[in-house]
Amino acid sequence: DAGVTQSPTHLIKTRGQQVTLRCSPKSGHDTVSWYQQALGQGPQFIFQYYEEEERQRGNFPDRFSGHQYPNYSSELNVNALLLGDSALYLCASSSGPRGTDTQYFGPGTRLTVL
Amino acid sequence: AQSVTQPDIHITVSEGASLELRCNYSYGATPYLFWYVQSPGQGLQLLLKYFSGDTLVQGIKGFEAEFKRSQSSFNLRKPSVHWSDAAEYFCAVGAYDYKLSFGAGTTVTVRA
Q1: For tag attachment on chain A, is the N or C end more exposed, with fewer CB atoms within 10 Å?
Q2: If you measure CA to CA, which chain B residue comes closest to A58?
């Protein structure tokens, strides 16, 4: 049983560019959450998708957007990249959107903005 | 809004010694509490979780955690540490509004 998968593993972009990160949830899971983990910090919640809708959003600007497909996979898009967007981006999946639904994390995508 | 504090940034422990990692949370209602571990360059692996019931919960890899409502704490313990336990540990609190809020993490170094 495959766990949460993310692609790509690493990515290097320059300021002002746009990036798309992808996530496939664990089998049987229908909810995807995205987190940003800056170096030396804990993950920060970006947003969560359930039933192809953004259910809740953390304190991130509109440059961060997402999408969920009918097969529950998800994308995170970041426009107009800033140096401060350099981080590990983690995707987590769960079998529902509630606080009691345990989130299982993927290995992350390391984004470097130059 | 919920929040988590992990007071210890870095802990060094000898192999075979006991380990305790502290976690304090802030949340107005009954929290859902989690401990995750992250090895270098890896994602987060769930160690254990608490939703309700018995305040002492057992997890994987020999870890346990105790929920103390009066102290707003959810400390993680392991009786005997192995070299492979060297990693970063994150405490997180979940509310009914979907998101997890993480602490800043505690880095554990295991010395031989």
Answers
A1: N
A2: B99
Q: Rounded to 5 degrees, what are φ and ψ at A63?
A: -60, -20
Chain B partners within 8 Å of A103 (Cβ):
46, 100
Q: CB of B46 within 8 Å of any CB in chain A?
A: yes
pLDDT means per 10 residues, chain A with 114 residues, are 90 97 95 94 94 92 97 97 97 84 92 97
Q: In whole angstroms, give the CA distance from residue A15 to residue A20.
A: 14
Distance of alpha carbon A76 from alpha carbon A94, whole angstroms: 17
From residue A84, alpha-carbon distances to A16, A34, B31, B111 in Å are 12, 17, 31, 34
Q: Whole-angstrom Cα distance, residue B56 to residue A105? A: 24
Note the residue count of chain B: 112
User: And the tokens for A14?
Assistant: 């320059």
Count CA atoms closer than 13 A to B99's CA, side-chain side.
21
Nearest to B100, CA basis, from B26, B21, B6, B32: B32
Tell me if chain A has a CB within 8 Å of the CB of B45.
yes
DSSP states of B59-109 = -GGG-EEEEEGGGTEEEEEESS--GGG-EEEEEEEE-TTS-EEE---EEEE
